[in-house]
Amino acid sequence: MNHRVSHRRLTAAVLTAAAVSGTLLAAPAAVAAPPAAPATALPAAAQDVAPFPKEGEIVSAGKTGFLYKTGVSGAPYAWMTYDGTVTPLTGGEYVGSAGTDTIAQEGPGDTVVLRDMGSDAEPVVMKATGALLGVSGSTLVMHDWNGTYLLDRVGDQDVRRSVTGLPTGSMSFGMPLDDADTFTVTSDNSKLYLVDIASAKVIATATSDNSVLGFDAIAGSRTHLAWYDWTPADDGGHFHLLDVATGRSRILPVGNDRSRPALSEDWIALLDTRTGAGKGKPLALHSLTGDQTLYALDRADEVKPGPDGSFLVQGALAREEGVYRVTVGADGKPVTQLVASSGRLPDLALVSQEVPQAFALDEPYGSQELRWTFNHEVTGRLTLVHTATGREYTEGAYSTSASPTLSIRLRNTDLYGMGLYSGAYTWKLTATETQDVGPSVELSGSFTVNRPTVARDHDENGVADVLVRDTDGTLKAFDTNQLHGIHEAWNRPLEPTVLHTGWNTYTLMASPSERTIVGRDRDGLLWLHKGDGQKLRPRTLIGGGWQVYNKITGGSDLNADGRGDLLATDTSGVLWFYASTGDATAPFKPRVKIGGGWQQYNLLTAPGNIAGAAGGDLLARDASGVLWLYLGKGDGTFTARREVGGGWQQFTDLAPFGDKNGDGRVDLYAIGATAGRYYATSGLVDAPFKPGVTLNHQRTAIGSGDVF
Hints:
- The protein is mostly beta strands.
- The protein is built from 1 helix and 58 strands.
- The strands form 14 sheets. The chain has a 5-stranded mixed beta sheet with strand order 1-29-28-27-26, with no helix packed on it. A 5-stranded mixed beta sheet has the order 31-37-36-33-34, with no helix packed on it.
């Protein structure tokens, strides 16, 4: 016989002696049981229903009402009928029987008190040892040192029944019970058992493959078992739904919400947090017999199985918070009825914002926090548009209910590893409420970012660049944060800054000092280009006769005056030093001869002071692939060369890479035919570079042109 008591009055008189198995018999003819209590009609309008505390939490749903936690000190539990009558409950914790009006509470001296909230019957007190796990009608589910057991009232006696099929020490997972007919038990969180209460036997088992979660958020009925699971490959998490009769399992994606689901005869109700699953965080109803999925409510916070195949849900619909009864109508569509109201949520609105009009971002750790506070928990998307170039930057953020503030921190690099340009920006923030449906709030404004001068930063974004002249003559500045691999983590292509076009007229190029690039044309004329924002100003002629040189390089401060200088080797192998003046109209002093014999080198680069000597240094690679270091003395000359090592013939270009590890020294970017390597400088004279690190971006990502 089924143990449901929704249609009975719980009194000691109506419970008579049963067989040894512990099943309950019907009341004798002399004491007739009252008829079943009809379900109360549920009003739909908020003004017609009883209030429900915002801090309230549903515990179980019965025929005539539901048990809930009030959140009020001293009276934490209460029973509310569907017509709005509230009965405060005193004492400690209560559990309810799914789909019935029975509630149970642990009393003093190893007792459990049962109450039928659908009648005025006196409470039934049962003697029980151990912990109360749940109640199913008039049957208690208990756990003590001997394991999980059932306790029935037979006549005036309490009869204990052992459960067949459970391992020793197994423990029921959570309470109250999910169903009036069954309950679930776990053993070491790796084995799940479904127990039939009438027969006190295990009727189904399941094994978890997840060693981390085991079984989580379990629900069970006579026909199905469900539990939450998550794997690294998941986009969020999912529920396993096991058909008890067939053993077949289905996967139901839900996102990252681990709230317990609820089962009825035909449906499983889940809280679905996946983007696009529905509006807000809806209640998803999946058919147990087919593939149909329905969505109800704008937000669901808690779901419990109710009477007659219904679900009782805490959530919101059309911004009305409260307790809803959810069913599926004859037309196959969800039907929602408001049972108790927690009030209407105000529309999403901005409370305050903190966005400065101007701020600086310093390399390498500078940042600026932008804050917007709303009256609800929100997700936001900030779009920045650089006024001068039109380049967009986007960043997302979310708030929490404890602090509904969107906080977006702009760092020296943005979300994709690129440095934010210096200059004026417009911004637009789109804020969307995470918990309920309503119109998004759009805010806009402007601010100015001031980037301090950084060595080899050619586009004013606070990050050193590598310059690349493509074969079509386009000059680009590649942010070294991108080349270093930060950008690749988001699977985005490199986004260089185009500084100029038409550079295929130049046969030699170098960058001797900050925001300064020189190029020699085919007629031997040397031209100067000064940077301005993210572009180059019109070029200025430096002078002719530069056809005598076959290599030029720049960037090292050779005479310790704070400016990068230019070096050039002529066709006879003599190295010449051009000191920078800082004057764009006459950028270099007359040349000074350093010495001959430099025809043995096929590649030169001036990375700056990398080994701690008095001046900027010079790297030179010979025909056999050996790299040599010349330490600058600080007077325009160098010490005797030191061997760095062999094997450098694998690289086509060597370029200064900025200070990527924050040690105050410029690092090196070595570029091969297909890939590149990053070499951090050590500051040591005899071993100037740490072991190289292969960069994931191939040479093809930056083009096949010249790099400097």
